[in-house]
Design brief:
54% of the residues lie in helices and 6% in strands. With 623 residues, the protein is mainly alpha-helical. Helix 2 (26-35) packs parallel to helix 15, helix 15 crosses helix 17 and helix 21 runs parallel beside helix 25 (570-586).
């Protein structure tokens, strides 16, 4: 079966580990079913976003995006699997990869016939899905974000991109992710509370002010998006009631009726109990994923914002620890279900259907006390029972209980590599240095892999993979890319005749300054394009600062705004500089001109130079 190829070797490891348990929990059965189910490309979103864009072509970008979100949620398939306690799927399948043609469409059309057979992260595509894609794809020609960005780039930026000085592909053809979602806000006041807030702001809007029109459109778009999300949850309530009528098993019938009542309450209103809080949290996470395909939009400190509901229910005798764990395991499985399709090339870089919707545990309270609670341990138990793959972080600090450290290590020892441990003593000062308040800094969480963030941050922590080693290469070749012969960097001078290492450092520093400027320039263009045609309306509901300012996250409405490029190749660059210093300027074995000549030949016929450079001091070797 073609689906077998879409089940990875690591998936089989998880399945085998689950099979070792004599009695599987509900969460383990759901996870096992998920891992045995291949991921599918779901065409629903592709169709419904296209139809909405066609219908609302004359609308402003914020209203158009809100109406598109509304049309998707109104029409996409809703389904509830057997035994599920937490409901909500990204598409028609348990592992659905929705498509986002408004961001980039060409690669989808080009790859749809071979995506099932590609070596990394294959997806199944039903014939009807291919028909849908081909039917609606022509509309997007010349209309996508990717085309807008590429057409906006001047030639000197294209030269830098083509030389792989940096990579911004994910920003050029996808939503802007790595955002910490303010789920506690929704748990406290519900989306209806956000609607009320926006309506009040509209009533008090001063229309003579220059920014009144844009703020009015933003708040109107938020209202449309929140109402759409509420109606979406009500569709799940209706589905649960429908299934309950046909259910023969009394316990499951009661569960479905409870799910229906929960979906009628949240995310529309405040969560009143633990189960509602967990379901509401998943709805918000899922809805952000459906709106845009930005990677690593994370729920944050789950043990902190869910704990009051857990504590209340336990104290009132409405919930046992085992019941809480069962709901939590169902919650964790939902995160493992999320898959994000990428073009074939990038799929090799982010292998394993990566989404990294990181959950953060432990750490300190905003007052600086230890924040460990019973849910901290319950989440670790859930990950231990499930061998879950979704990213998990435990914050540690000087007052972290030894019991928590030991439990975290026990879970790590199970072999899944989770949780990762990250230090408050490092992370909090880092955020303070960026102007984050002490209370917000103490409330930090991880978004994505290891990027730290505070609530209210529009950070784009993956705003470029910056190739540090390429900068050194360009410095050695006076800004010319030796692979193409084109001037990709700054003309920083001919170093072939250099007699001192200081010349190399100066050329490298000049080249670095130039390449960073180019990378920043493209980031500015990308943000401009997103701001103009791709506002992130629903996401802005759960990023503090946007509702108050009346500005979308792409407009700068968040409380904190910055970009976080990721430098790659740092060790290689350090080793390269050390090798040059040792071989050329200290030992005087070869001249700088001879080394450059050998590099131009890819060291073919220059084994002596290559050997000398390879044997130079290396980072991590204490030499």
């Amino acid at each position: 079966m073609a689906g077998t190829a879409a089940t990875t070797a690591r998936d089989h490891w998880y399945i085998d580990s689950l099979n070792q348990d004599q009695k599987e929990s509900r969460g383990q059965r759901l996870l096992k079913k998920m891992l045995e189910t291949p991921p599918f490309i779901c065409p629903d979103r592709f169709r419904f976003v296209t139809e909405a864009y066609q219908r609302y072509e004359a609308a402003s970008p914020p209203i158009r995006r809100a109406r598109a979100f509304e049309n998707i949620l109104k029409n996409m398939t809703v389904h509830i699997l057997d035994e599920e306690l937490i409901v909500g799927h990204m598409g028609s399948y348990q592992r659905s990869a929705p498509l986002f043609p408004e961001f980039a469409c060409r690669w989808v059309v080009e790859e749809v016939d071979r995506v099932e057979k590609r070596k990394q992260d294959p997806y199944l595509v039903e014939p009807k899905a291919k028909e849908t894609i081909r039917k609606y794809a022509p509309y997007w020609q010349g209309r996508t974000l990717n085309e807008r960005v590429i057409e906006s780039l001047p030639e000197w930026i294209h030269a830098a991109r083509d030389a792989s000085i940096y990579d911004l592909t994910s920003q050029e053809e996808a939503g802007l992710g790595h955002v910490l979602l303010d789920i506690p806000l929704v748990l406290k006041k519900g989306l209806s509370g956000i609607i009320d807030e926006c309506q009040e702001k509209l009533r008090s809007l001063k229309h003579h002010e220059p920014s009144s029109t844009s703020r009015e459109e933003f708040w109107q778009a938020v209202i449309i998006s929140c109402n759409a999300a509420i109606e979406f949850a009500l569709r799940y309530a209706d589905k649960a009631r429908s299934l309950a009528k046909e259910e023969k098993i009394p316990q499951r019938r009661a569960e479905l009726m409870e799910i229906a009542q929960i979906c009628e309450q949240v995310p529309a209103g405040p969560a009143r109990n633990y189960w509602e809080a967990v379901q509401s949290a998943w709805f918000i996470e899922m809805l952000v994923q459906i709106e845009t395909n930005g990677v690593s939009d994370s729920p944050g400190r789950v043990d902190q914002f869910l704990f009051p509901y857990y504590k209340q229910d336990v104290e009132k005798g409405r919930l046992t620890r085992d019941q809480a764990l069962e709901i939590l395991e169902c919650f964790v499985v939902k995160f493992d279900e999320v898959v994000r399709i990428r073009p074939e090339g990038p799929s090799h870089i982010t292998a394993g259907y990566l989404t990294t919707l990181n959950m953060t545990l432990g750490g300190q309270t905003v007052d600086g006390d230890d924040a460990t609670n019973d849910l901290t341990y319950l989440f670790l138990d859930a990950y231990a029972n499930l061998r879950a793959k979704n990213s998990l972080t435990v914050r540690v600090h000087k007052q972290t209980p030894e019991k928590l450290l030991r439990r975290a290590c026990e879970v790590i020892r199970l072999g899944g590599g989770l949780p990762q441990l990250m230090s408050d003593e490092v992370s909090i000062p880092s955020l303070l240095s960026r102007g984050v308040s002490l209370r917000d800094a103490r409330d930090w969480a991880v978004v994505g892999c290891v990027e730290i963030s505070a609530l209210g941050t529009w950070g784009r922590f993956n705003s470029s993979w910056f190739n540090i080693a390429k900068v050194l290469e360009l410095a050695l070749f006076n800004g010319v890319d030796p692979l193409t012969g084109l001037q990709a960097g700054a003309a920083t001078g001919n170093v072939a005749e250099s007699q001192q290492m200081e010349d190399i450092f100066k050329a490298y520093e000049k080249q670095m300054a130039h390449c960073v400027r180019v990378m920043v320039a493209e980031n500015n263009i990308i943000e401009k394009c997103h701001r103009e045609i791709m506002p992130h309306i629903f996401m802005s509901c759960v990023v503090p600062g946007c509702l108050d300012s009346g500005m979308d996250v792409t407009e700068g409405g968040a409380k904190y705004n910055w970009c976080g490029p990721i430098g790659v190749g740092l060790t290689n660059t350090g080793n390269g500089l050390a090798a040059i210093e040792k071989v050329v300027f200290l030992d005087r074995k070869f001249t700088m001109g001879q080394v450059i000549e050998a590099m131009q030949a890819d060291f073919v016929g220059y084994d002596d130079i290559r050997s000398a450079l390879e044997n130079a001091p290396k980072y991590g070797n204490d030499d």
